[in-house]
Design a protein that fits this description.
about 400 residues, alpha/beta, Aspartate Aminotransferase, domain 1, Aspartate Aminotransferase, domain 2, 2 domains, 7-stranded mixed β-sheet, globular, binds pyridoxal-5'-phosphate, pyridoxal phosphate
Amino acid sequence: MNQYRKDFPLLATKMNHKPLVYFDFAATTPKPTTVITAIAKYLQEKTGNPGRSTHTLAFNANVAIECVRTKFLEFLHATTSHRVIFAKNATEAINLVAHSLAVTYRGQGVKPTIITTEAEHHANLLPWINLQSNEGFDLMVISVKKDGAIDIPALLAEMRKYKGAFLAITHYSNVTGNITELKQLIATAKENDITILLDATQSAAHAPIHLQDTPVDYLVVSAHKMYGPEGIGALVVSNTAFSSLQPLILGGGMVETVTTSNYIAKTDEGKFEAGTPNTAGIIGFGHSLDYLSSIGIDTIQQAEKKLSEYFLNKAKMVKQLHLLGRTDLNNRSPIFSFTLSSIHPHDVAEFMDQQGIAVRAGYHCAEPLHKALNSPGSVRVSLSFLNTTEEIDYFFAILSECLLKYD
Ligand SMILES: Cc1ncc(COP(=O)(O)O)c(C=O)c1O
């Protein structure tokens, strides 16, 4: 039995009277007891409005938030190069950057070309479509290849063509599990004065990220996919990009001075965090980072590689199963989306649900990617180091029953 499972109360529960087999880590992750307890303790004994009142509770809440800011930078090996702005989730963080671009270039004739890819989650596509439709930006969308991987040579060619462009790209695909290699992209970006926003929503809890070695300008995450709570995410911004970033939300807590006709905004992270922050969420996020660090992200990556290999070998033996994405272990994370020749993905997910297995079916908020792969939707299994080979065996046994029923 996996030694870490006992830390996650959710994993000991039942679903539809069957022991829960949680295979939906790409959607959201269970929370360890340390995270749950820390949030409850803050809500029970420590609540105060940070940056507002001056009493000890408020002061301590502020200290707690600043500690998590530093902790996350350490987690990403970016203590001096980057800054952390808290947002509701990765979606809001990306929208903040897109809004800043809109405001910065509004009324200007020359705007950076936005480059993105067909492999993106809608969160990293719609804001750029909006810049094209409503703000006059040019948008280049790089295709994926037959295996769902981003066409990197085509991307590099566009980056060389559109100097000064803005590239918004996923690190780990939430559908194919494909991993975007960063080193070459970053070198090409540097040569061509290109800004990079990396969507690390599916990678940050599964692989080490070294922002000092692979320095992107922006990086986004959601805490709930990193064993933290919902409602909190982060935008990590390089010091250079930080100085020109424009806020998305205006209001209390973000200003130095205000008159009835003007205001002067703060110059630190507070400029982007108007309104009372989600202190409980930030504290929970900090504890999820502690939890990940206590195991070691390299250890997690190795464990997930082994489980991925086990899953892939079993999947290859099911002749009706068509995997979206690569069938080898290279450059892939523990996310597997597939179709079955004659069964609708929702029927498979429903069948699994009745047997206690949580998977996701549909487009997974990546409709253009599914269309590029001629797929009407897929079943997604997303694993983590918390899973076991026994759970994978059980999944394939239930899949056989499903095939017998529908095929
Ligand atoms: C790759 C990727 N980017 C962005 C998001 C958006 O995350 P959230 O809904 O937490 O903002 C997701 C969510 O699944 C994702 O998988």
